[in-house]
Amino acid sequence: MRLVAMMVQSVVKTTASMVSQPAATLTTLLYCSDLLPRNLDLNRFVQHELLVPQNFLFHFLVRFLRCFW
Q1: How wide is the angle at C-alpha 63 spanned by C-alphas 61 and 68, nearest 5°?
Q2: What predicted TM-score, i.e. pTM, was given to this entire model?
Q3: What is the mean pLDDT of each successive set of 10 residues along the chain, which is 69 residues long?
């Protein structure tokens, strides 16, 4: 039951971020999955609150993009 609660919290956090700031969320996703170049200009757009280890959905999406893109 606790695992389901953690996953739901992760989905809500990622979805809320995508709805409120879609450009910054997509930039963070692409930047962390190494699909965007590493530079200081793009680092300003990265949302560091999405990078917490408890955000399982976001880290899954990053790893998925790293593997298949």
Answers
A1: 95
A2: 0.84
A3: 87 93 93 90 88 91 91
